[in-house]
Amino acid sequence: MAPPATAAKEFRKLPLYLGSLERLREEHIIDVVKLSLRPRRRMVVLPSKGTSDEAQAAREALAEDPYNLHLILELAHKYVTQGHVERAGNVLLRGWKRAGEIEDVHVRFCFLMKLCEVSYLLSRFKQAMAVLQDVAEPEDPVERKSYHILSCHVFGANKEVQKTLKAFQKAIEGEDFEMAVRIYALTLTDLKEVGIYSVAKSAIERMAPEGEKDSTLAMLDGFATKEPDTSLRPDDIQRYFLMAAAVAAAAVLLGLLYWLE
Q1: pLDDT tens across 206-230, in order?
Q2: Are 70 and 6 within 8 A, CB to CB?
Q3: Exposed, middle or buried: residue 227 (CB in 10 Å: 0-12, 13-18, 19+)?
Q4: What are the transmembrane regions (predicted)?
């Protein structure tokens, strides 16, 4: 039996990974490191507050119409913004192969990117790479930057050395040192994972103005070797997922998911 046609209404657009990077210019470089998306191979999710009334209503609506792609995105959005990582991933997975039904290229892009991001966060690295292969490189410069940074994460986790390096080079392409070093800070763990940390560091050093090379990059060298805390509070997850939609960058950076020791 064929699934019913998706309702002719606007699809919910999911938050874009990192949102606009321009807000990072005002943040200290170490705060940018704390913003970095990191998988948790030994992730421990502490008890959550439970499902909100809104999420419960969306779940019940989807249960009554399980093939409705609009409702799939609606429930995924609830889970994402409320910090239910695994639930969000499972719901998004249901719509993966139907992403082509989403006509709006930006909404479709954000949907696939969110599934890729969540898959990576849950250490489902092969799945994240498979999803990434379905994502067309966008023309929008903000979306394209997000795409290349997430690609660097995913390729690094899958030990794809050349693809990781290419994604990093694309991510810093056309940027000044101030932004390039922040992209480097976001991806330094991935770069180290595949053995190209020194290559990437050299590229950033060549962009550095006199006097900034030693101080900024020396700080990042220390953080590249640190292991993040393996406990993960639901409130932190929620703040992490909300960061792209936040208006005030300072408020977002105070509630980040991954604090380094």
Answers
A1: 988 876 666 778 778 777 656 544 4
A2: yes
A3: exposed
A4: 240-260
